Amino acid sequence: MVQAAPICTPVAPPMYVASGEPSGKATASLICGIFFFFPPAAIGAVVFGHIALAEIKRSGGRLIGGGRAVAGLVLGYIGLAGIPFILLIAAIAIPNLMRARIAANEASALGSIRTLNTAEYTDSQSYPQVGFACSLSQLGGDPANANSQNAGLIDNRLMSSVKSGYHFQLGGCTFTDYKFGTYRLSAEPIQLGTTGTRSFCSDQTGVIRMVEGNAQDCFDHGTPSQ
Q1: Can you give the pLDDT at residue 4?
Q2: Per-residue pLDDT reduced to its tens digit, 161-201
Q3: What separation, in Å, do the N-terminal and C-terminal C-alpha atoms of the chain show?
Q4: How far is CA 50 from CA 33, 69, 78, 162, 184, in A?
Q5: CA-CA distance, 84 to 213, in Å (whole number)?
Q6: pTM of the model
Q7: How many distinct helices (H) and strands (E) make up the chain?
């Protein structure tokens, strides 16, 4: 008996679907979205996300990455929703920080004026034949000056005339009885209203005065500090 040959049924080859190209804008949206707490990054996540979704839809499968674009959009909108709170916090915090900085600068300037008055007294006692110093470099001990032995009466920053947002000036010396018997000392904000609102001044009496304004205003009508 002859056995019949088996009938072979043709088998179709497996179908392969070509993978699409990842969308660069979708990736950019996701990366920006990761940093959503920065407003520019949140805006970038939203913009790139919308553009990426539109391009992916029009590409007919050539582009992929819709999930990345959606994730970037979600994170971006979360960041945008937080911007009003960030602005509110900044509106409260920045003026407070500026006021604290101004208060610290003014306290430092007042303390420096006291230091300079003390240095002037010490200098006049050390050099009675000369009297008061007429420049900050003398009090700092500049070797070019006759009073160089007084190095250390004031620090280098104060001797440079600029310290903690204030500009310091020492002058107004008058020569009486063969020595310098007077001086005028002032501390004025470098940027009035920004680094300080008050100016401070003093003279050989040791009384420190202050005023809302510049150094000349202080000498003209400053009130004694407490």
Answers
A1: 58
A2: 999 999 999 988 888 878 899 999 999 999 999 999 999 99
A3: 130
A4: 13, 7, 15, 53, 67
A5: 36
A6: 0.63
A7: 6, 10
